[in-house]
Design the sequence.
């Protein structure tokens, strides 16, 4: 057992140059007196002053709480190494000298720990506080659930927050098809829209509050499928091919949740009946499988299809805003926006239903840009859209 431990320790010492090259900014070493004393007493190995043996660990592989607990017996040395070389710093023989030790950049041990603690994920720190004990590694779920459950729209994936000017600057736009794939996507969208408009009464019927809400609930239910399926296919492809994804997955997941939040916003105004829910379930079952297979065959077609679909969505919401402005839906005249909408888009307290639908239209215009852009890119090109943009 002792021989194995010492062999592992020697291997870690030999790997220092490689680790320094992989992590050139900071290399954090823990100089453990307890581990060194154990090696000295067992094998008679002496490395360092006063029988200390240095066990080196990268800070990025240790939770902040573990480092805090280790400070009582260890000295943290911040080593800034821009050249990739494995420099060494001696902390002296006393714990007092170790506490006052500074790295070449002037970083103290407490400053390094504070930086790491700030960078730690909030949920990780919370879990370590609640359940990070050796005696209770699997606490009851009730002890982990927060007392104040966040409301819908408070904790979401990153997404754009629009200004009042941006909401009004949205315009109907169209990208001309170029090539067979683009024309197939364009014609597919218009065939789907023609059939749906005819069956839902959008073309010939009267669009009152009830009909508008029914249409929006159905469309937003369907609109949440492409982003999720695209992200899933790319995720599985990355696992299967053992290659990176080039940043597409997070954008597609953000789009899927954004469309789902549109649904949550509209559902706060109307709850559909059992027959409508059955129709949504059947449509989703068909659409999910078709889109999954299509994305496997041609991601370009799928993103172009969604791009043209979002063009139609902008047209639909533009007509809705025009109907509200013309007073064709008297129930929505100066009606306040829903609570979910105010929390999700950070709308002011005096925001109205019109402001809410204008925010949804801005989201759809953004999806229009994203999907047309992704369709025009190669699958191994890096996604230009950052999180929340």
Sequence:
């Amino acid at each position: 057992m002792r021989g194995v431990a010492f062999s592992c320790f020697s291997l870690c010492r030999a790997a220092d140059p490689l680790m320094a090259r992989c992590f050139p900014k900071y290399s954090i070493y823990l100089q453990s007196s307890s581990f060194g004393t154990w090696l000295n007493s067992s094998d008679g190995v002496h490395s360092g002053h006063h029988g200390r043996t240095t066990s080196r660990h990268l800070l990025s592989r240790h939770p902040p709480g573990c480092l805090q607990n280790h400070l009582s017996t260890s000295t943290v040395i911040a080593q800034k190494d821009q050249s990739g070389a494995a420099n060494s710093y001696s902390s002296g023989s006393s714990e007092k000298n170790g506490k006052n030790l500074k790295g070449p950049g002037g970083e103290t041990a407490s400053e390094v720990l504070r930086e790491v603690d700030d960078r730690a994920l909030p949920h990780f720190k919370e879990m370590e506080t609640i359940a990070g004990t050796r005696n209770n590694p699997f606490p009851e779920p009730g002890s982990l659930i927060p007392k104040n459950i966040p409301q819908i729209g408070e904790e979401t994936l990153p997404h754009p927050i629009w200004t009042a000017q941006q909401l009004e600057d949205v315009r109907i736009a169209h990208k001309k098809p170029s090539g067979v794939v683009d024309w197939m996507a364009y014609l597919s969208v218009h065939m789907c829209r023609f059939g749906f408009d005819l069956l839902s009464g959008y073309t010939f019927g009267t669009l009152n509050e009830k009909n508008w809400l029914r249409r929006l609930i159905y469309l937003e239910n369907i609109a949440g499928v492409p982003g999720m399926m695209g992200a899933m296919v790319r995720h599985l492809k990355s696992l299967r091919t053992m290659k990176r994804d080039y940043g597409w997955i997070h954008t597609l997941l953000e789009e899927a949740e954004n469309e789902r939040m549109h649904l949550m916003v509209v559902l706060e105004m109307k709850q559909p009946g059992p027959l409508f829910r059955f129709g949504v379930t059947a449509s989703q079952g068909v659409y999910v499988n078709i889109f999954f297979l299509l994305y496997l065959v041609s991601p370009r077609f799928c993103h172009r299809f969604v791009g043209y679909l979002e063009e139609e969505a902008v047209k639909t919401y533009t007509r809705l805003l025009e109907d509200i402005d013309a007073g064709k839906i008297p129930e929505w005249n100066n009606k306040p926006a829903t609570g979910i909408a105010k929390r999700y888009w950070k709308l002011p307290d005096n925001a109205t239903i019109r402001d809410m639908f204008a925010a949804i239209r801005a989201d759809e215009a953004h999806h229009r840009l994203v999907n047309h852009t992704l369709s025009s890119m190669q699958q191994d090109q890096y996604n230009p859209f950052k999180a929340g943009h």
